[in-house]
Structure formats: structure tokens, C-alpha cells
Amino acid sequence: MGVSLDLAGKVAIVTGATKGIGRAVAFALADAGARVTVSSRDKDRVARTAAALADAGYEALGVPCNIGRKDELAALTSASRDHWGPADILVCNAAINPYYGPAMEIPDSVFAKIMQTNIQSQLWLSQLAVPEMRTKGGGAIILVSSIGGLRGSDVIGAYNISKAADMQLARNLAVELGPDNIRVNAIAPGLVKTDFARALWEDPKFADPRIAATPLRRLGEPEDIAGAAVYLASDAASWMTGQVLVVDGGATVPV
């Protein structure tokens, strides 16, 4: 019996799915056979992304959702369920980073917003999807973290704290949900050329040294992360849970 990356018949929900990593993941899951519900805050981008997937011959549904609002997450899971049936795959990709500066000076409200959006929402969405995954006999939850969660920073410290927490959330949920055959893993991308990180990769003073220190000598593309998501969602990863899969061109390799 061979190793399969086939996701035919599976239902996937992807947040932050209209740009960058999330969009690449949505297309990759669909290409592997999944029926995909795509979501982000911008209803126009959601509609365009769902239409692009449909135009490419894939099965897709678009549902606008602000992940920082629990009622909208509930509406997202409900709409996906009504259209496709219960989710088999959950990709929690959406995140924010509204503050660039020292953690000692971050306003309380901004810190709280980062934690709610980047961590609490992942738990909320998992809580909403898991009961039906249990009924179906299993599922796969993928939290998109960052190598920032493995490092300290004096300018994006709050974001890094949230990404480290995503890794621990994956470990905790893996322990809780393993007996139900629900696997929970995290992906930790390095610097990927997305709109989210544009200020970093478009600045040669930052990007050039980063590229020089990366063994593969390039920054990531969204598609570099999408393959990891397909793997973690598939039966090829059926004995993998509670892990952090670093995809960074070797940037975190100790030298």
C-alpha cells in the first residue's frame, strides 16, 4: 500500500485564504482533491478567490470572516458544514502583526488584540470543528506559526510570543485529541514573500543578509509552504501529531 497525498472527498476550511500562504494552501488542498472553504475579512477578496478556484476546476466556497470574532468563526464553520458537510481539515492561517517596536512599550489593547487574533481564534475554531471531526472518526488541524516563535525579537516580540503559543497549542491539542484520531500540527515558515511580510523582504538592508544566511540562498514563496500543508492534511502524515514543521530554507539551522 503506497503513501497517499490524495484528499479526495475531504472538506477543508482555510482562514486567511485570499492572499499569500493561505491562498497557496487553499489551491494546493483543492489540487489534491479537497473541497475547500476559503475565508478572510475582505468579502470581495473572498469572492474573487472562490471564483478563481472554481475557474480552475476546483470545488470551493467563500465565506467572509474576521477570526477575532467568535460569532463569525461559528458562522464560518456553520456555512461550510451546510455546504459540504463537516470539516475534515482545518488550516488556521490568518494572523495579524499591527505593532513594530519594543514589547516594553506596546499598548495593552494592541497586545491583547494580537493574542486574541493569533492564538485565541485558533482555539475557538478548533473547538467549533472538533466535535464533528470526532463524529467522523478523525481529522487534521494545521496551525500556521512562524520561525519567529523560535526566536527573540526587540521589534516584533508580541507577534513572536503569539507564534510560540501556536506551537504549544498544537502540542496540547495533539495530546487531547489524539485518542479521537485528530492530528494537530504546526507549520513554522521562515521569511516568505507575501504582502504580510512585504516591508521585510522588499528592504534590501534586511532581506540581503537574511538570504545570505539561509542555506538555500533565497526567501520562501507561498507555494513552498503549501506542500507542507498538503502533507500534514493527508494520510501520509497519519502518525504525525503535536509537531512543528519548520519550512525556512534552512535559516534556523545552527551553524
Give a written overview of the molecule:
The protein is an alpha/beta fold and about 260 residues long. The protein has one domain (about 10-195, about 220-245): Rossmann fold, CATH 3.40.50.720. It is about 45% helix and about 15% strand. Strands 3-2-1-4-5-6-7 form a seven-stranded parallel β-sheet, with helices on both faces. α4 (about 110-135) links the parallel β4 (about 90) and β5. The longest helix is centred in the middle third of the chain and has 29 residues, at about 110-135. It is globular and about 45 Å long. It starts with 10 loop residues before the first strand and ends in an 8-residue tail after the last strand. The model has no long low-confidence stretch (mean pLDDT about 95).
How far is it from the N-terminal to the C-terminal residue, by CA? Answer: 39 Å
Q: Enumerate how many helices there are, as a single number.
A: 8
Could you name the ranges where pLDDT drops below 50 across 5 or more consecutive residues? none
- SSE order, one letter for each helix or strand: EHEHEHEHEHEHHHE
Q: Helices and strands: which structural class? A: alpha/beta
Oligomer designation: single chain
Q: What is the CATH domain class?
A: Alpha Beta
Going by CATH, the architecture would be: 3-Layer(aba) Sandwich
Number of domains: 1
The average pLDDT is: 95
Global Rg = 17 Å
The CATH topology name reads: Rossmann fold
> Can you tell me the overall shape?
globular
